[in-house]
């Protein structure tokens, strides 16, 4: 009796396995495409066996299917790697098939040069990680354990008007000001802090979620916008600190990693790329790199009066004075802060 049961189980297993194996699905997907392109993806069964229904998902979000295929405009999902899944329902079974596609920007970034409009003193002991212009003053955060500080600075003199230190266990990173609060990131502690704008009194701390580290910070008036050292830019709710969404930053050729200090200007994100004397201009909706400003001559300008530590005392810090349309940049421990104008080549 037992033998028969085993034999029946074996038969059942064989039957189920062979039935499963009868359906061989693949997703017909172009692996690399560009923005502003229509992309069609089709679920194929090796022997054209009929399925009852297919549901498609891009990055976990269901998209409208037309029988065994669907079409999207790549701009709706932005540049970067996207996961596509199909859930196929066929007699008595369901199967999930995963694949991916990568979207690049549809054109090369515009190249900008720059013109120095003004230069101001900057503390050579300020290892700049965050820089923002607010209500007539510069606000700056500096890094390194035991040296991390939050400062309010007078633009024209570089004089530090107000300053607090971060606990020695933390390495300070970017800052931004929103709704009369200062938000300040730490590097690898997966933590950020919130201060009162006027008093610099610590109000609360928050934890990062999926974003990896704390690098740059800015805001668009609604959300905090954070870089984490990868090619991703994260949008956080300033009250709950929920990471609402992320952008992947790509040119027409590759992903741009190590995005550092940030500034939100005219609906675009300006980012320092770590250890590169460049600022990249990013489309806030798609993540595509729209422009690159080469500031290597600005570093050379600094080196006329100051010896900079290679690969350490690098360009970092972008601030924008919206009222007067002034763009400020500096670097880690640089003795000068420059007002510059970017010029499209
Ligand atoms: Ca900034």
TrEMBL record:
Alphabetized InterPro entries for the sequence: QCT, Quino_amine_DH_bsu, WD40/YVTN_repeat-like_dom_sf
GO MF terms, alphabetically ordered: glutaminyl-peptide cyclotransferase activity
Short name of any one Pfam family annotated for the protein: Glu_cyclase_2
Keywords: Transferase
Taxonomic superkingdom: Bacteria
Key word Cell cycle present: no
Protein name (database record): Glutamine cyclotransferase
Organism of provenance: Polaribacter glomeratus
Lineage: Bacteria, Pseudomonadati, Bacteroidota, Flavobacteriia, Flavobacteriales
